Amino acid sequence: MALGIADRTGLGPETGSAADEHPMTDAPLIFFSSASGYTGRFVEKLETQAGRIPLHTSEPTLLARRPYVLLLPTYGGTAAQPGAAARGAVPKQVIKFLNNEHNRSLIRGVIGAGNTNFGDSYCLAADIIAVKCQVPVLYRFELMGTSEDVAKVNEGLEKFWTHQSQKPA
Amino acid sequence: MTEKLKLIDSVQAINWNKIQDEKDVEVWNRLVNNFWLPEKVPLSNDVQSWNTLTPDEQQLTMRVFTGLTLLDTMQATVGAVSLIPDALTPHEEAVYTNIAFMESVHAKSYSSIFSTLASTKEIDEAFRWSTENPNLQKKAQIITDYYRGDDPLKRKVASTLLESFLFYSGFYLPMYWSSRAKLTNTADLIRLIIRDEAVHGYYIGYKYQRGLETVSEERRQELKDYTYELLFELYENEVQYTHDLYDGVGLAEDVKKFLHYNANKALMNLGYEAMFPSALTDVNPAILSALSPNADENHDFFSGSGSSYVIGKAVNTEDDDWDF
To answer: Is B320 at the interface with chain A, CB within 8 A?
Structure first.
């Protein structure tokens, strides 16, 4: 599904041809969106530059070049029984991206997309990453988000980065 | 009567080692992992709670569940099956057979609830009501007409609206009881159904959008107009159905907010923008948290006071491909 966001990664064509062939991004928002593209469509409506984590784990993952907020969806319930540990909530592509220590060192917050119909698993992937990386969950929204969600995320991200820039390094 | 509902033209042996659309495998795996049966839910623990409901509340609950049974039966025997001939891949056909079977499990699970909580006389009365209620019969008729029609993309729209919108006038009630610590095991079972329907709505909506990619801009516009028209027609009927059921217990306005909220989500599953403004979708927080304990927005950084955010509690994960 064409999303028309490839040109919004904050990359000139010359920076994409690094020796290790990892695409790189200067964007303050990095996201994952599956083939269904709902999360990508939400990102298109934001006022920020965004970098997309590759759709397939066989591709070299994205490299962040500045602090960023990660936005990712949770597709569904994962625990077989209530109380059982969750499996598979975080997409493999995102795990690959965060297994890179440099990427991990630059994450500052997480935004989750999901569906409350998934009960306990609503935005579970965002919660898991927040705990593993010790960063806050900034916001949650459902499916491709409403216009109100877009406004809240635009405003929230602006305040968040202002606040971050005022923190001692 | 059913001439237009065709069978698939030709069948080839399905090869799961050659995948055209990875979504088919992903959704198949999700559905298989989510599989459940009503026998696993300890419904009998709700008998005591059931006896604290007034006769009117019991009757309302029985009626709501027969209404849901009708929708699940339709989706099992007509809806999901009617999507098979237009599948884009053999794996999509297989996913629809999974959906059809699971809808039969859902339909049967209401009978498990009935036999646990009610007498044969009450059960028979509720089923009689379901065949006589004009709004319930009308929604069944509207959807069935599209399933029998000859437009494959419109069938997917009707099916997604059923999965993602039409169930919710009914799903409201067990969430309401659960928020008041009543019929909590029944609510656990309903939450399993809600989870399944969410995957079904997502998948059929996704396949609809794949289908849209292959048609002209003019046809896309026609389908978009059709979707909003059908949703509005169904919505008007749902409002009457809601008043008919819930006026007696004073919950109709609360249910309608839940309808608006879910209508927006049904549209999003089809790739369209939400229709109802946030002023009409402010679902009772008790209902939302009965649906998902994580739905409370107050623990989000952007929604709270910002700087005083506390990092969340540990979440168990068994995934072994993390390196840290």
So the answer is: no
